[in-house]
Amino acid sequence: MSEESGDESTLTVVLAGGVNLAIAVLKLIAGIITGSGAMLSEAAHSVADTITEVLLLTALKRSDRPADRVHPFGYGKERYFWSLLAAVSIFASGAMFALYEGFSTVFGEATEQTDPIVGYIVLAIAFALESVSWFQAVRQVRRDAADSGQKVSVYLRMIDDPAPKTVLFEDSAALIGLLLAFAGIGLHQLTGSHVWDGAASIAIGVLLALVAYVLGRTNRGLLIGRQADPRLVRGVREHLRNAPEIEAVVDLQTMLMGTDQVLVCARVDFDDSLGAADVERACVRMATELTESFGDVTEVFIEPVPRTDAELRAAVLARYGDIAERWDKGQ
């Protein structure tokens, strides 16, 4: 991960954390004054977001530690662990409280709404502050997507740094949640029915649960060990195939070891006329070329194997299916 990109992620997380903490205090005070369940749900929402930013900041700092004897591949995946906890925090601290508050309001005793104007003012201030954090997250995501030559939707699906995606999604949910809370308070004031306030809380809880699920699924895939960007995989395969010492790339596996950290494991069929020393030198040279040509590649392992090995061939076909046949033909 570049230093500039890392600083940008840190700025995005710190800005979001500061904004969410201030908003949480305002919403809590307004919720107590107005007695609005939707406002209290939004206060819990902001508390959950603040906890999320603390976890993301922890992820950014701890994942940058250098490799050591215990963790020879570094601590890059620790970013995914803490980001997964952030997704759990959104669900446990935000969604569950909002759902509880919503159902309690709908099915509990009717409560009289007091000073709704306070709620409107706080929601307006919160929307303005939240927009600052949201625009920062959008700016980073758009810039990073442009740098990678991808559409924003594709970039978010393939992203290997969960911090900006988490901030973008939680800030988007926060803005929608504010609108839901505004609608709940407004309809309560117009109709005199507390059901609208409770319904808004339930909607906020469902929204947070959905965001937590999407972010959790993203980090689960990264923790398990997702393949690198397909464009990088194709580039590595083509680079190896064009090496004069290699007759065929039999198998190629990649795995994200962290943000901008890719492990490459290749099984290749070398020219049978090469001696052991020639193969050794070729492996060292190609590993160096890959790390220099592809900035995200940090570790390379190349294993010489015969392409006619039936057991290995069956394993490759089982993993990749028909695409393995096309690789052999250079398609």
UniProtKB/TrEMBL annotation:
GO cellular component assignments: membrane
Membrane topology classification: Multi-pass membrane protein
Location in or out of the cell: Membrane
Transmembrane segments: 12-33, 80-97, 117-135, 167-187, 199-216
GO BP: any one term: zinc ion transport
SUPFAM superfamilies: Cation efflux protein cytoplasmic domain-like, Cation efflux protein transmembrane domain-like
Primary location recorded for the protein, binned into one broad class: membrane
InterPro entries referenced in this protein's UniProt entry, alphabetically: Cation_efflux (IPR002524), Cation_efflux_CTD_sf (IPR036837), Cation_efflux_TM (IPR058533), Cation_efflux_TMD_sf (IPR027469), SLC30A9 (IPR040177)
Source superkingdom: Bacteria
A GO molecular-function annotation: monoatomic cation transmembrane transporter activity
Keywords assigned by UniProt, alphabetized: Membrane, Transmembrane, Transmembrane helix, Transport
UniProt KW Transmembrane helix keyword: yes
Domain spans labelled Cation efflux protein transmembrane: 14-223
Listed NCBIfam families: CDF
Protein name: Conserved putative membrane protein
Organism: Amycolatopsis japonica
Lineage of origin: Bacteria, Bacillati, Actinomycetota, Actinomycetes, Pseudonocardiales
